[in-house]
Specification:
This protein has 218 residues and is of the alpha/beta class. It has a domain at 2-26 and 79-115 and 167-208: 3-Layer(aba) Sandwich (Rossmann fold). It contains 9 helices and 8 strands. The protein is globular and about 45 Å long. It binds adenosine monophosphate. Adenosine monophosphate (AMP) binds at residues 9, 31-32, 35, 52-53, 56-59, 64, 85-86, 88, 92, 158, 167.
């Protein structure tokens, strides 16, 4: 099962990816996490990507497709993968399609998380993340300790107001058209209302995949 999580920055892809992975028992692959790890490690990939990332611009398609090709060769993705943050341009959609065809695989579904810009700005300006495991937090102070791994909680440079504006513009110009690309290439696209309780959004996303779940906490 290969699922693409699609949506504006701050739509909740990074929050939903591990929850869906847990429900569906397939791993996640987040290109943003791979890139941030490369920046922290000071690798040539990191050096190449850092400027684009800090400004809220996209990293070149060839770099992204290289990362995805390298990762999808790993055995843990043999059963499937939830792609978080890729596909973001039409050339990436085309490149992934060719890559998967060679492996006899295809994208099974695109989950498009739907949210207004006002809500995005509100969410991203209150977002902090663990610098180690990338767990996102809302309203958690910079410098506090991550519940999951004990890492330090920080604000992403690309969550500053200027970078948020750039990321939303880049989304409109380069990423939004990807949805129509999937629709016109016969892909299954499910639009998911991304506003509201995290658990409710997960249930809606699973419903978009044809998986029925009910809340168990009342
Ligand atoms: P994310 O964590 O998905 O918001 O990604 C953070 C940043 O990494 C983005 O703003 C881009 O600079 C870069 N990035 C991540 N995934 C991609 C991608 N598929 N295409 C281009 N740039 C990407």
């Amino acid at each position: 099962m290969i699922i693409v999580l699609f949506g504006k920055p701050g739509a909740g892809k990074g929050t939903q990816a591990p929850l869906l992975a847990n429900e569906l028992d397939v791993p996640t692959l987040a290109t943003g996490d791979v890139l941030r790890a490369a920046v922290r490690g000071g690798t040539s990939l990191g050096v190449q990507a850092k400027g684009c990332m800090d400004r809220g611009e996209l990293v070149p398609d060839a770099v992204i497709l290289g990362i995805v090709a390298e990762e999808l060769r790993q055995p843990q993705y043999a059963r499937g993968v939830i792609l978080d943050g890729v596909v973001r341009t039409i050339p990436q959609a085309e490149g992934l399609d060719v890559m998967l065809q060679r492996l006899g695989r295809r994208v099974d579904a695109v989950l498009a998380f739907d949210i207004e810009n006002d809500e995005i700005v509100r969410r991203l300006s209150g977002r902090t993340v663990c610098e180690n495991c990338q767990t996102p937090y809302t309203g958690r102070a910079v410098g506090s300790v991550c519940d999951k791994c004990g890492g330090a909680v920080m604000r992403r440079k690309d969550d500053e107001p200027d970078a948020i504006r750039t990321r939303l513009r880049v989304y409109d110009e380069q990423t939004a058209p990807v949805l129509d690309w999937y629709r016109s290439h016969g892909g299954k696209v499910a639009v998911v209302d991304a506003v509201g309780d995290v658990c409710d959004v997960t249930i809606r996303a699973l419903a978009g995949l044809g998986v029925v779940r009910r809340r168990t906490d009342g």
